[in-house]
TrEMBL record:
Annotated pathway: Cofactor biosynthesis; (R)-pantothenate biosynthesis; (R)-pantoate from 3-methyl-2-oxobutanoate: step 2/2
Membrane-spanning intervals of the chain: none
Protein species of origin: Vibrio rumoiensis
Residues in Ketopantoate reductase N-terminal domain copies: 3-143
Family, per entry: Belongs to the ketopantoate reductase family.
Molecular function as annotated in GO: 2-dehydropantoate 2-reductase activity
Keywords: NADP, Oxidoreductase, Pantothenate biosynthesis
Record-given protein name: 2-dehydropantoate 2-reductase
Amino acid sequence: MKIGIVGIGALGSLWATKLRQAGHDVLAITRDHSPRSISITLDQQAEFEIPANNLTQLSICQAIIITVKSTQVKQAIEPLFEYLPSNIPLIFLHNGMGALDQLGEQWNQHSLYLATTTQAAFKPSSQQVKHTGIGQTLIGTYRKTKLTPQLDSIIQVLDSALPKVVWHKQINDALWQKLAINCVINPMTAIYHCKNGELLQSQYQTEVDNLINECHQVMQAAGQNQSLSELSSTIKQVMLATGDNFSSMHQDIHHQRTTEIDFITGFLLQKAAQHQIACPHHQALYQKIKQLEESFI
Ligand code: KPL
């Protein structure tokens, strides 16, 4: 198969190298559309030379995986519109919710899919990627797209290159769950300069529990039926399992980059306002992250 990967950050590089390793053709699309090829070493073992930025070849790809951050989805995908026939499945993989809602009406005819993953990758340098955590990738519908036989065979290809990849009938549930995890872990670790696991320490418990509680109220109002104790144990399990990691928002703040706060806490606050639910703890974190971002300008 020929698969396009838009965004060659840690996850994009992981997908590009794993698909090449499995014998597929990969076309990488980088931010500035300039290099004709990129070279990436996977786990300090195999080096892959990957053709890049030949935009006319997008039309012969069987699927495109868009791995840019939620803040970059619109600016990464809009310039590719003229090269992308509407029948090619576009699979968006990023933290947060609401990024696709910002795309213009011209995308309504395209086959857009949403994905979420617990695979973890780290890019120690621009030419290296490390697969730091084995997880699974769930793919599901955005608005009215369906699991077609074409998409089913793409899922099989993706699953054999970087297992596990499965179709999820209720992707919204999985996205809400990941949103709640990110709403609690990401801003707190960025503000308190700590690793994910440190949030399990007693000094953070009251704030963590208040944040989970507010998330739970909004999720209930949005039709998510998980119990508070289930949600709490899921979030705390992720803190434990990724205990030694610095969250993506911690890294963004550390490198003085714009964070995904608008698509994480911002999305939660938007839904909270629609349902008239007060979320003072999330609101406070949102404002602190915004203040930090403003101090970088
Ligand atoms: O998704 C993550 C992130 O850092 O963005 C978690 C799950 C918190 C892992 O670090």
